[in-house]
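Weekend entry, working from home. Most of the wet-lab plans are on hold until the incubator is repaired, so I used the time to fold the two sequences that have been sitting in the queue since the last round of cloning. Logging both here for the record. First:
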Amino acid sequence: MAVTWTRAWWRWTGGPTTRPVERVVRVDGRSRADEPDDERQAFGRWVRKRPRVDGGKRRGDGCGRRSLSPTWVLAVGGPQPAGRGGRVGGVGRDASRLAGLQRRLQGIAGGLAVYDEAPDNVSSSTYSSTPSLPGCRVAPGRRADAGLPLARVTSNRIDVEALAAMDGVGRFREVLPMLMDPVAFAEAFVSGDAAGGCRVPSRGMERHRATLRSCGVASDARSRPAFAMKAFTTPKKDGRTARLVLDARPLNDAMRRPPSMDLPRLRDFIAEVERHRFAMQCDGVSYFYQFPVDASISRYFGIGMKGCDMLLNVLCMGWSWAPCIAQRASNVLVRDLGLAWVDNFLVLGGTLDEAERNVAVFRKRAQAARVEVRAEGDDALWQVRSRFVCVGVEFDLAAETQRHRLDPAWAERWVDGSGMTAVLSGRATARQFAEVFGGAVWATDILAVPRCHFAALLSFAGRLGGRMVGAAAPVWDEVVDVPPSARRELGALRKIVRENPWVVGGVPEDTGSVLWTDASSRAWAALLEAEGRFVDGRQGVFAGPDADAHINLKEMLAFAEGVVRLCWAPGAQRCRIDNAAVVGAVAKGSSSSYAANRVLSRSLRVAERRRIVLCPGWVPSGEQQADPYTRGASLPRFPAPLSASR
């Protein structure tokens, strides 16, 4: 009997979807009842297929009598059914588990045939990411935990009502009903979705059942949960234990989006820390698990398990509202004392005495709300320091001028990691590139390197991300070809991160001048204002490809011309632009447009050589001083009064 690659219909809670079977184990002539239940449930789904003979001729119509005995196909490395909010992926979590599956299946029936060849309609690059086991994919979005035990978690529970009483702003009280009030929780659902009914089974979680019970994180469900979702584990930084995460996308899709987290921007976080001289750092112990969930709400946080489902009794890691609740609670504890980054607390002080007083207040608040904290790393709890590492940033507040840089340990891992090696070689999985690119974004923010200098890298990341978002089943282990231009830019950034220079905080003195730039459909103009008059200016007409460019790019070109031709004095240079897109791009150092990034990179490199810090600001078009000179007016003789532009 010839084996023919076909397509199978999967039936799931989200409706029928079509997926190609990519790696199959064919057991001919055996019925489904002959196969052990544990093999079917633990390692794959059996799909009844229409038998084919001699080149794929079909016998029977799938409903009536068949001339051949039934054939059952076990999808080993192929896609799994994707339910509502589900994730498509392989059966195994790593190559060793899939190899073990082969060995166990050999005892089911004689004459077992394993086919590793990829079908014609599936890219062969999909199969090159799992060494020694061709034809299999690791499930996207999952990291193999290699059977690691769950990390030890605290059984402490926060007194959320006491914490809400300390909330002078009311931001935490706004989201507290999502933990305690079932009516408010139900109102957060999109109309008609509160009933739930979704059940996605978890794999390999039964071994953690006793641990989850003992620490009070979860309990056995006495009735069917409204949402029983897939749980999985990911390795922690120590590499010896794993953390529990719930794939709560079915629940997230059924609820409205949460409000703002109130998480500070990274640059604002760093700037606030560098205004002080001393700090005490600690973090919450199993912080999400310290938030209790009312019993009437826990039915929405079910874990689909073999035998008996479980219900989470604490804040669900994976639920879209969880980070918002945790961050707002942390902000209550550090209000007027310092900063919080989810479960990281930083108590600050301009002097040692002030820092110690703030630490004493923080301790009282933590004790009153029953929040369990611990010291970061090897530090003693409540110890005030001037040099420390927090959220991946090393701070040195004892220096004459406060400074910061990347955490050296993190920088070393990113620079010499296997993902970086694969990306620089030109062929890497989409997952490897995403991890490396995420680190690049983090590094450029901390080291204050404008991302517009890496226009090709940003462009490739945007194209790859768009393809993954638009795909029905993103294949994160697909091998992609990284363009040479993107690799060159990544190599340049890698060199900067390897050096890991200190970045000195603070804003330089103002130059005392204001740069006005504007563009119309055909011309651009730039004026430099100082001491209440215009002291210099330039104007020009767009020609060549620039004449047909988008207005945002023309505004960026006008800004670049003004910086290069008019700005020479070192210091903080104020810039006035009437285009919000250009203001935003200059402020954050990058744009979503490749062409705009190239233009912005040129102007920022010039400003850096001249030790100029550009400070953009938006003005209405009616107040733009350079506007008349983009519409045919000639520049005045300089110096000229401000009224000359009207």
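Second, folded right after the first finished:
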Amino acid sequence: MAVTPGLSVKVGASSEPYFLRFHAPSNRISNNKAIVSNAVLSFAMVRSFKGVGAGKVRNNNPCSIAKTDRCHEAFAAQELVDLLRDSAARGLIREGKSVHGLLLKSSFGDEESVRLFNHVANMYAKCCSFVDAWRVFDEMPHRNVLSWTVMIVGSKNNGLFLDGFRFFYDMLVDGILPDEFVYSAVIQSCIGLGCIELGEAVHGQIVKRGFWDDVIVGTSLLSMYSKLHESEASVRVFNAIAEHNQVSWGAMISGLSSNGLYLEAFQKFLAMIAQGFRPNMYTFSSVLKAVGKMKDDSKGREVHHCVMDYAMESNVVVGTSLIDMYSKCGCLSDARSVFDRNFYKSKVNNPWNAMISGYTQCGYWREALDLFVEMCQNDVRPDLYTYGGVFSANAALKWLYFGRQVHGMVVKSRNHTRVLSLNNAIVDAYFKCQSLEDARKVFDRMQERDMVSWTTLVSAYVQCYQAREALSIFSQMREQGFIPNQFTFSSVLVACASPSLLEYGRQVHGLICKAGLDDDNCIESSLTHMYAKSGNIIDAMEVFEKIVCPDVVSWTAIIYGYAQHGFPDKAVELIQKMEQAGVQLNSNISLSHLICL
């Protein structure tokens, strides 16, 4: 399960939360059965020593015996802590339950007991058995602030965000004062709930308790405000942090980028570098995403120079982000250079996917499919993103045979055949290759469908001039409870653009008005086109006149309507009005003008 940045983990560090990270043993645990045996032996030694010690109190220093007794107890407890840590990290709930059973039969001092049962609760929470974690917590005779932190973090990690907030409230009622880790954890619950009001309430208490400038708490707060789209508040929190670190800078840059403040994210990145902080791979990824969105290759090259300074171009996350950034900026040669230098022989598919996607986005479809073939020859395993880019390129090239081969690969993989987005892409590729039969087979076998699935199939039949079949599919879609969107309606209106289907088109127009989509630009153009092609010039003009800013498609539809139904003078007049409105003529409009004349 993912660990919350700023709360639990540093890049490259252990996945165990800060608040449970005590001194780890030098050797990692590799054999749980051996550890259980060692733990049992340790307990036996402790009990044996206690028995011997009790009989010699008269001849020895009792303080020395008590001190040695505590040392053996601490040693045994540490071995169990190590095992619980390993069970939590690897999801080994059976081994964890064995240790829990051993603890219930043993006797430790209050301090060690609290520590051990905190780890037991954490183990259950990490193994997705939060009910057991809750039971352990309820049965603990003594608790400390770490006990509550474990439950709040466990609630959040198991998606029980409201329960996490309730633990925080109960903790306050019990008189336990939260520390920075508790505040950081409960802020994550506020993010999960999507509730800015609760987050602001926690923020208020943080200020009163004096944690407002703590870097851990501040980083969690600015992440919360960023994820809940309160960018100004996140910047204020960032500015209030007394001493920044790599994580707080990264969180701020990521927050700005994810909220569309791309220039601000880039500027914060420059400030971070100027203040001597080294960006990690996720920070580079965030700022490169921002630059790609701005399509500013000069800024991208500036970031790239920084990447080279830190020798991170070969990092998969950073290198993939560079390829994506250059592709979005239209600099495919630079993207390919990064790919060839670092990843052409790599078995990791992310850089391959980014390069294929880059070619597809820039219209270099043949190059995208060539690279996919090379990817397969290099034994790099394709995934959903690979196939998505490949089917998009294949649809543009209309290579039916190639598309069938790739579809066969998807079927053989068995991992992706039920993925909705991929099935939609396959249907789209088949119909653009003019193979309605293949498209329909894939659609009929889909176990799950969404509006994209239905709209794609309706559009396929419309573009293949099978209007009545398209309308039949539209009716099936509505019968199954799907509510058409503007794209579905637009395709259906194209199907209705003939005198024989005018009445059906009027019914669709009524549905559009009920759905409140009649003022959508795409819908207005389609309605104008439908009425004009059906010979109903009056209704076509009525719809056209309601359009606030007609585009070239709307003008084309109404001009063609008048031209094709015996009103050439009106068509010429409309062409002149269109030119006066500043809408540029294209070749189709010029042709209609000639037809009118």
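Plan for Monday: verify the second prediction. The longest helix spans residues 62-90.
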